[in-house]
Amino acid sequence: MTDAGERGRSAAIAIRQVEKSTGASRVALAQAKLLTELGFEVSLLVERGNTKVVADTGASVVKLWRWPFKGAFRRFWFNRRVQAWCRRHRPDVLVSHGDCETRDTLYLHNCVHLAEQYIRGRELSRGHEVASIHDHVLGGGKFRQVVVNSQLMGNEVSSRYGIDPGKIEISYPGYDPQQFNSQRARAERTNTRDALGVAADEKLIGLVTSGNFAKRNVAGFIEMAAELQRRDPQRYRFLVVGKDNTSEYQQQARDLGLEDRIVWRSTIPDVETVFGALDLFVLPAHIEEFGLVVAEAMACATPVLVSDRVGASELLSDIYPDLVMSHEATSAEWADRMAFLLQREKAAMGDELATYVQQYSYLAQREKLRTSLKRLASTSA
């Protein structure tokens, strides 16, 4: 339903690439749909975009010419093209997804400076592609508001760029309850475990991610697996899902005697069936600005254990502190907690988590986003 007072107004959403599979794209598509419902004529300004997916939101795609060479200039070029388009078309609202300046709302999806510190213990080199544009956009302070995925991110941008905390909004990404629910997840549990080669009496522990195994600390997960395997050689199996080069991690597993205990899979479309097959989902990431997979696993009634440097741990730390580990914890301490959780009644714990996480579903978060966009629309009138 549209708001009559907003008819005839236009909005632009600037995001370099929009696909259905990434978290940033899902947020941008939700924004496009809601702004359309509010009566705006919406354009997505992109370098690459799935026109069919965007069409389902009622918005249109504007493809801007992409600088052909890699490097920081490519991001600044995108910003220039967005600003030029806006000077010609004068949208009432410009929503940025990190790579361009705006006087309205800026959505930030990653903190590359903090990631480099947490993963490699060093500062980024001058001229880093993403850091350069973030420093330009966030340091310029033209925006009315910055929206981030977690308090972890909020603290970082406030500290690094001197942004008033009052201009920072925390907006947890919401999962899709139609795809991620216990009924869908559990329906194929036996078949999925059989396909993975997991015996009925084995406990399956998984790390599921889109990729970037260094950031998600797959090496640490393998060390934890080795510790559990040493304690009880026949009790556990392990699963790593994600798109990345696995060669060094598989070699690590072989060196630790885990070659036949870890199953490797690339990204899987029906990932809810994987969550349903797990007895425990683990994400020991060095940093994860949110980690939607945590909420998705919980929605599938799968117990979770995450690092306190995962933004989604903020959903758990007060009510379920046993499900959050300090980033300083050793592999042995992680193994202790994993074994402890696996001794609990999985179904009861999983059902409780599935009920609790419903407040963070896409439907619930959509209403918060709608309120935020309505406020943006009214202030830019």
Structural class by sheet pairing and helices: alpha/beta
> Roughly how many Å is the radius of gyration?
22 Å
Count of structural domains: 2
> What is the makeup of the main sheet?
6 strands, parallel
- The first-level CATH class name of the largest domain: Alpha Beta
Report the CATH superfamily of the largest domain: Glycogen Phosphorylase B
Instruction: Enumerate the spans where pLDDT stays under 50 for 5 or more consecutive residues.
Output: 1-7
Measured by DSSP, the beta-strand proportion falls in 15-25%
At CATH's second level, what is the architecture of the largest domain? Answer: 3-Layer(aba) Sandwich
Counted beta strands: 15
Secondary-structure element pattern, one letter each: EEHEEHEHEEHHEHEHHEHEHEHEHEEHHH
Shape: globular
- What distance lies between the first and last C-alpha atoms, to the nearest angstrom? 20 Å
How are the strands of the biggest sheet laid out side by side? Answer: 12-11-10-13-14-15
Provide the helix percentage.
Answer: 40-55%
Count of alpha/pi helices: 15
Using the coordinates shown, work out and report the CATH topology of the largest domain.
Answer: Rossmann fold
Give the overall average pLDDT: 92
